[in-house]
Amino acid sequence: MTRPTPSDTPPTPVSTPTDTGPTPMATSRHAGVERDASAPGDMPPDITVDAFLGGRVEAVQPARGHHRAGLEAVLLAASLDGRISGTVVDLGAGVGVAGFCAAARCRRARIVLVERDAEAVACARAGLARPANQSFADRVRIVAADIAAPEAERVEAGMGRDLADHVLLNPPFYAGASGTRSPARARADAHVLGAGGLDSWLRAAASVLKVRGGVTIVFPAAGLAELIAAVGRRFGALDLLPIHPRPDEPAHRILARAVKGRRASPRILPPLILHGAEGNAFTKPVEAMLRDGRSLASAARGWHRPRARSS
């Protein structure tokens, strides 16, 4: 389930050359996203094809609404060390942007996308078939399943225990009683936490993770207390990375990473600043992460800093 990207600045039109000839492809660019305004004629008008990581990844997603992916999805993928191997599971994967970007960056990893919404699953399957994604398509598997379903159902669907070395989570941002609920159920489900709250997401993550496997979550800074409490029930060695729109503004997102089966004190890392004090441009390290697929550690130096050995 992907979440709405914070609108730091409206999209601005650019022209990007296609791979097949000199005719420019009209795109709109925002938070590392380039929209193909000249998508194939058989594409429904309410569906767009968007490019990420400078065109290394393409996603098929609704033209509007809460299943659209952007900044948070790319940040989750960038949080992984590009040298990792093993299996990465993206729970609530939406249209697949975080998982696709992870597959493009981590060439030795296998990716499992788990999503319950039928429209999002269909978009993910269509996206995986895009020519731009064929370099990693054979390492990506899409599972249609509800993470809140009983474990037996999840296992039958392909979410077995000890499946993952890494889990990515971009859970709904709001509790059921807060925010303005979308009139369409699919849109509402995409940004409203269910009855189990954040705990149900972390329970599913703990179930599929191997011991010493890691989970990375992006969540609103306003939900920090809930995030710490929910993570602490099942994981340890918590790292918190505050994400600030600008140097003089409060954090609006938190990127959290924790480890199953490890005990260590939490750390609050130096923040990631998205924009400079003036203008709408991303900082150069953030731009390199969004456009070139650089790791989060290149923009937030403390992210991959090792911890001292502990139990």
Topology:
Elements: E1 12-17, E2 24-30, E3 33-36, E4 47-52, E5 57-62, H1 71-78, E6 85-91, H2 97-105, E7 108-115, H3 118-128, E8 140-144, H4 151-157, E9 164-169, H5 185-191, H6 197-208, E10 209-220, H7 224-232, E11 236-244, E12 253-259, E13 267-268, E14 272-273, H8 284-292
Parallel strand pairs: 6-7, 6-9, 7-8, 9-10, 11-13, 11-14
Antiparallel strand pairs: 1-2, 2-3, 3-4, 4-5, 10-12, 11-12
Helix pairs in contact: 1-2
How would you summarize what this structure contains?
The chain is an alpha/beta fold.
Keywords:
single chain; 311 residues; alpha/beta; nine-stranded mixed beta sheet; five-stranded antiparallel beta sheet; 14 strands; disordered N terminus
What do you see in this structure?
The structure is a single chain. This protein is α/β, with parallel strands linked by helices and 311 residues long. Helix content is 23%, strand content 28%. Strands 6, 7, 8, 9, 10, 11, 12, 13 and 14 form a 9-stranded mixed beta sheet that branches. A hairpin with a 6-residue loop joins β1 and β2. α1 packs parallel to α2. The longest helix is centred in the middle third of the chain and has 12 residues. The chain is globular and about 40 Å long. The two termini are 34 Å apart.
